Amino acid sequence: MVASFNALSAVGGGAAVLLTNGLGMPASMLKGGPFASFLWPGIILLVVVGGTQSLAVGLLLARRPSALAWTAVAGFGMIIWIFVETGIIRGLSWLQALYFTTGVIEVALVLVLLGVMNSPFGAGPGAPVAAGFTRPAPTSVRDGR
């Protein structure tokens, strides 16, 4: 659900930035950064951020073994995108706070589903793994592995 929201937002936002040359934002927001226009930020948002989010959604729906790994990549990608974006424009809006939070939620959910982190709702190590996914076998020095 979170990855779907992020995928739709990134693909739609990236396309809108490209079609409108910045959604009405002044190019002066980019002053001092690596971009002279909104072309490359729009492409990165659409292809990189939206692409990894969309890939994660597709793999999750297909219950592929790599789905959780790609969801983590997509979540970290969203977090990195927001950090870089706020650094370039030297500001923060509620939308950036929202998308930073959704990236963190994505990564946290992956960690809970893998049993690496406890959920505040009771799931975590020892809890059943999400249907269609497997938890990695534990390894320790005592087990001889």
Tell me what the structure shows.
There is one protein chain. The chain is an all-alpha fold and 145 residues long. Helices cover 59% and strands 0% of the residues. The protein contains four helices and no strands. It has helices at residues 2-20, 39-61, 67-89, 94-113. Helix 3 packs antiparallel against helix 4 (94-113). The longest helix is centred in the middle third of the chain and has 23 residues, at 39-61. It is elongated, with a radius of gyration of 18 Å. The relative contact order is 0.12. The mean pLDDT is 87.
End-to-end gap = 36 Å
Main β sheet profile: none
- Given as residue ranges, the uncertain stretches (5+ residues, pLDDT < 50) are none
| Mean pLDDT over all positions | 87
Q: Encode the helix/strand succession as letters.
A: HHHH
Q: Given the structure, what is the number of helices? A: 4
Strand content: under 5%
The geometry reads as elongated
The radius of gyration over CA amounts to: 18 Å
Share of helix, binned: 55-70%
Q: By helix and strand content, what is the structural category?
A: mainly alpha
- In total, the number of strands is 0
Brief synopsis:
The protein has helices spanning 2-20, 39-61, 67-89, 94-113.
Primary descriptors:
145 residues, mainly alpha, 0% strand, elongated
Note the topology:
Blueprint: H1 2-20, H2 39-61, H3 67-89, H4 94-113
Helix pairs in contact: 1-2, 2-3, 3-4
